[in-house]
From TrEMBL, chains A, B, C, D, E, F:
This is Hydantoin racemase. It catalyses: a D-5-monosubstituted hydantoin = a L-5-monosubstituted hydantoin; D-5-benzylhydantoin = L-5-benzylhydantoin; D-5-isobutylhydantoin = L-5-isobutylhydantoin. Keywords: Isomerase. Its EC number is 5.1.99.5. InterPro entries: Asp/Glu/hydantoin_racemase, Asp/Glu_race, Hydantoin_racemase-like, Iso_Racemase_Enz_sf. The keyword Thylakoid does not apply. GO terms for molecular function: amino-acid racemase activity; hydantoin racemase activity. It comes from the Bacteria. It is an enzyme of class 5 (isomerase). It comes from Allorhizobium taibaishanense. Belongs to the HyuE racemase family.
């Protein structure tokens, strides 16, 4: 089984981090194919970056499907371009926020997502609502820049810990989802420290992709996810015409 | 007052149709500036087309704002790229689906949207849910290709009428929203025929834009709509880096 | 275009304040006709006052419609008698709470209403729910008597400011709606001070009324807003029989 | 125990019908005091009639409370003026729609309300939503004038039966609430015929009033139901000033 | 009228406490028959105890119905086995949480449940949601062991009081429901102290049972509450085969 | 990895059918341990059977966990005793309805569950609501006895097909979940026939169990799923005292 792990931003080092997290949980026989978008923002912070990340993501997805991968993961916690990706591809496509929520719902009645930047909170809250988890999942932001997690001199990890503590105290949360692909390596340590399940979305998405491929199901194409209608695309994005891309 | 009317698909004739609808209701002193996206699909049918239409839309929006327009309208019923547009611009940005629902809510307790193609139904249903109108607004599709509305030999208008009749009978609807910019010229005739308010989104959006400009309010930039963070954009979309575009 | 601005309480000075707010934003050519109810409470604080304010409001509305106005605004933040008014009249009738929520939804994902007295909080919360905005709009009360806003020796404005500050900190609010017609003159100052959009319902209602009249739409009379059935009315309210009033 | 049964319309014969239904189920020792509003419409059909029925209802309620009754029932299925009545009185006030829904919820997972006129359907649907029963209770109208139920030559009863049959087939309903005080005498016969519980709101309200009085609880006055603030009332409604009425 | 009051745990002294509360409010002529489950846990704290308490509860219910009682109450605040009980019996079966919420909704717009142990909070929150009261009822736990309420040396009552005070301050609550059968004797005292209605579920359930019996309605058996299908039961629970039990 | 597949009814042949479905999709290295409850009903049809099936299910679960299995599946579509099972065990416990909904949500925006008997429809609808899928998942019953699926002379399969056809036409469904463990062998054939994904809950549960074990997560025990408090259990169910069972 081959699973494409598509980083929708254009920073290859972030792809590597996500690929590490993916490989740690992948089953024997599952091959993780990390792919980095070739066009768009170097990181995704808010709606504008997200919108501009979609074309590059779709291009990687189309190429990966042609290449015969069995499923694809979108490795950004805002589930960038998920609907468009499902319309484009026939293979299953998994968002990491969606996968984390679905997975955590099997082990906890209430849980909280702790993300990095404040401006990502509302978009993630919209996802939680869309996935039907509003009554069991709150969203918090630790207000830390993503990159600062790597920087030992910053107090980023302390702020993350403080926000997790608040979630456990104030939200009835029995489990924590880390709302950023870049936090995956902290999972085990935080789980030990707080003695509650601490969940990483990339890992969940790998297992959900394996599940769908194992079941032999693919995206239902009957309605909103029907394949794109063939038609001309113009200008800079000419190459995205469905007949060209698929 | 100058209002940019941005057609997010790349077909100029559709821009003209929307501009006609806009000018019919614009107040004295309101100038409608019709703009057609220069890149992306020639029409928007489903999530894939929608995603690829966003960059072209944002480019027109950035240029229009630099040029000093007071507000902008996104002239496609799926409210293409609305969140990204609001993050990018400081001027008010109005979606035509959103404007139609907000406006109709002042005159009817229940109403239905009748759109063209079946595959657009679920995305519009998601918009209705997001705008908080699920309990008062149903969405129907007449299953007609957009362009067939122009073709006198097709039975498109009969199917549209039949679907409106069903909405009035089965949905408790007291008013009808036409869920496609290309239907704007039918408004008056259908209103006469069915003796209920028949609403066009482009017209509503013009009046909502005039309202916001008249009130002197602009998009709240404190949180999810904060201006894009300056950062490099790569590859084909390099030109969309916030410092380049804005 | 002539818009009736009906104050449903019987205090003419409050009508004047609302009329000032209305005229500040009215378009050239829009005439604001301020009307004060001739029967009922001198101010509306809670459900009892509200119920007794409705007959006087309806009487002004009937007279204004006969007189040929194009639309009517109910100038009290509890949207007093809105359903009955829409059943009675064919012209559009706008509530100021409803107008403020619809308008603010175009520029902010989350916002809060700050009203004066605690006992008004729950009724407004019910309106927010009815208008489909529960997930994006919280309601707060500054616990100040309406009239104290005018009194320089009271600390009313400080309490209002304190409550706005809490809304911005605790509610994810990116914009503030002032939940009382008597606060309209504070809009600009508070907007400067807090650097977020601060919205007044009367102003929004004027623009929404202009929008509906400009579109040529009127209340849909097919169902719950059908014209009152002709029938005898008895006792003190005899004069309200539909054949007498309309 | 004395329970005021207030008919908010001004037709005494309807009060008699409701009083019969009430007495059939009243416990030994419960005295039903039927009261007919002295001002307003002769029947309540839609929002306009409802609004004009409230003052007369409140006047009867105030007099009954002064007179020492233990609880009051509002005998119209749109729960006319319920919030204002609860703010005015300290004794428990029960709406018959509210009572029917609360009572039926103890014996059926899903049920439907069958009312008379189409224009009453949406207002009742709003009540169902407010009482938290939207997911278990549908509302249907048999489209019959209230008075025709008394007329043996009309087909009103057949239409009522047909609508009940549809509710049982199409709504998953396991019980039926008759959505009009004037249908109370049909309960037993319809129950026999359809072999499901058929519920009358007046009867339910009597038992709920007995329950509240038996428990010794009264309306909570801390917030939205706080007693009306003393203040002048003007014009025709001068007599409704709280200090005059209470 | 005879009402079975079934304590689903196996501790007879708790049955006595509930029976006292029931008898305090029972109407003249209502006989309370207290019954204690003969199998299962000595107290119900969480989902596991609850599940194991159901068979014993059902056995008492079947015997009571054979014996001719008119209605039954399940005297535990998690409404233990309510659906199974309604499927088994034809007489009305009332849960005390359900009864408390239905009753309190007639006298307060918002209220809070204060229960004992933290682990009971989420199950009660699910009940509140199921009964349609989520928007008007919050659930709090005082984090006290049930039995400590009886112990004068513990600070249990102080913690209960503190939690009630928080509910009144932070939840908009105008009334309090005590979320544990063992608190019934505190009702009057707390009501005096906090000057708001303080409600006990057992008392409410008695009055609701009287109401249903007085109306002559029984559980609707058409669908989810249809009588159990006759079939073999095996092993330890052989005696629960419907033909054996009913 | 060893996964206990617990049939909560006492009919071993049904366990075999579920075990076949489970083994068809289990990964290499996953061992399925089929277990049949030793006490309770031979099949689960409605709330009464469900309640009596829980003790036997919990006994198998406790034994399996002691025996060292890694996860457990409850192989009945009403997710029998799921909350009690999660409180009892530390290993992940998966319901097949829950697993089917979570899995299908990754590949279809809307889908329908088609179950066998009408009386199971409402309980499944409650599960759908609890899992947050009400807006995307409808529940239908083909009104066929479970065992008739095995009988070639019955028209059970035709009725199942007819109900699936209705779901695709009337519910916007793009995928079908078969709402009964006994239908698992029909999946492939129906998928071919209707050309939409047809999903079996047992298969989904196996993959979700593998996912959770692969991730190393276990049930969060902090709150509603905390381990049962040690206490005496009496009578027939004495053996279920937590200290005896766990």
């Amino acid at each position: 089984m081959r699973i494409a792990l598509i980083n929708p931003n254009t920073t290859a080092s972030m792809t590597d981090t996500a690929a590490d997290a993916a490989r740690r949980v992948a089953a024997t026989g599952t091959v993780i194919l990390p792919l980095t978008s070739k066009m768009g923002p170097v990181s995704i912070e808010g709606y504008y970056d997200e919108a501009l990340a979609v074309p590059g993501l779709l291009m990687e997805l189309a190429a990966a499907e042609k290449d015969g991968v069995d499923a694809a993961i979108i490795a950004c916690f805002d589930d960038t371009g998920l609907d468009a990706a499902r319309a484009l591809a026939a293979i299953p496509v998994i968002g990491i926020c969606e996968a984390a929520i679905a997975t955590t719902s099997f082990i906890a009645q209430k849980f909280s997502i702790v993300t990095t930047m404040g401006r990502s909170r509302l978009p993630i809250e919209h996802l939680v609502h869309r996935y039907g988890a509003s009554s069991r999942c709150k969203v918090r932001a630790a207000d830390i820049p993503v990159l600062s997690l790597e920087d030992p001199s910053s107090n980023a990890r302390e702020r993350l810990r403080a926000e997790i503590a608040k979630a456990l105290e104030q939200d009835d949360a029995d489990a924590i989802i880390l709302g950023c692909a870049g936090m995956a390596d902290l999972t085990e340590q935080l789980c030990q420290e707080f003695q509650v399940p601490v969940i990483d979305g990339v890992a969940c998405a790998v297992k959900q992709a394996e599940a769908l491929v194992g079941l032999g199901v693919r995206t239902a194409k009957g309605n909103a996810y029907a394949a794109p209608v063939r038609k001309p695309y113009k200008g800079l994005l000419e190459g995205f015409a469905p007949e060209a891309l698929c």
